[in-house]
Design brief:
The chain is an alpha+beta fold. The protein has nine helices and five strands; from the N terminus they run αααααααβββαββα. The longest helix is centred in the first third of the chain and has 15 residues.
Length: 199
């Protein structure tokens, strides 16, 4: 079952800002774990605990369910390249993530909503599957009928840096190549996730 509670609670639980809107709050207040005891209950994690938290953090950041996330890890492990790097590539090449990275949506959650409601096109065709893997040289665009949406206009007006593996022109973007490690999520320790699933 997908989590529908307060998102800031998840950021506090993992100790980092998982969602864009939580960044300022965590910078201002610091990280206090949820619950009545707060920092008093904080204790040193075991090796397994660190692996589990890293897995939970990454899964929540990309808005995935456990079965879906473990499936991606399994697929990455079957590849001939390094499992951790391949896992991050799979996550970055998800359609909802690309919509977010291109600045069409202010968060991955909003990007997921745009895609699932049919407001995004891949190579000129409507795509409504947020987890769809976008191929290199494919174009991703906001549907012409949705370009005039108030939120989309606001997102497009805001200047957000687009990573080098993507190219953006107005409401259309293109996947140029596979992302390099330094162009992917810096707060993810992919090795801990690989270790968790290889137990």
């Amino acid at each position: 079952m997908r989590y529908t509670g307060p998102k800031r609670r998840l950021s506090r639980r993992e100790g980092v800002a998982l969602f864009t809107k939580d960044i300022k709050s965590i910078e201002r207040k610091g990280v206090i774990p949820p619950g009545q005891k707060g920092n008093r209950m904080k204790r040193r994690l075991s090796e397994y605990g660190l692996q589990l938290r890293e897995k939970q953090k990454t899964k929540r950041m990309f808005g995935m369910m456990e079965k879906q996330f473990s499936g991606v890890v399994k697929k990455a492990a079957q590849a001939k390249t390094a499992t951790g790097q391949t896992l991050l590539e799979f996550l970055e090449l998800r359609l909802d993530n690309i919509v977010y990275r291109l600045g069409f949506a202010k968060s991955r959650m909003e990007a997921r909503q745009f895609v699932s409601h049919g407001h995004v096109q891949v190579d000129g065709k409507k795509m409504s599957i947020p987890s769809a893997k976008v191929a290199i040289n494919s174009t991703v665009a906001i549907s012409p009928k949705f370009v005039d949406n108030t939120q989309v206009k606001k997102n497009l007006e805001e200047s957000r840096e687009v990573p080098g593996w993507l190219d953006k022109k107005a409401q259309t973007g293109k996947v140029l190549r596979l992302p390099l490690r330094e162009e992917m999520e810096s707060i993810v320790n992919e090795q801990l996730i690989v270790e968790y699933y290889s137990r």
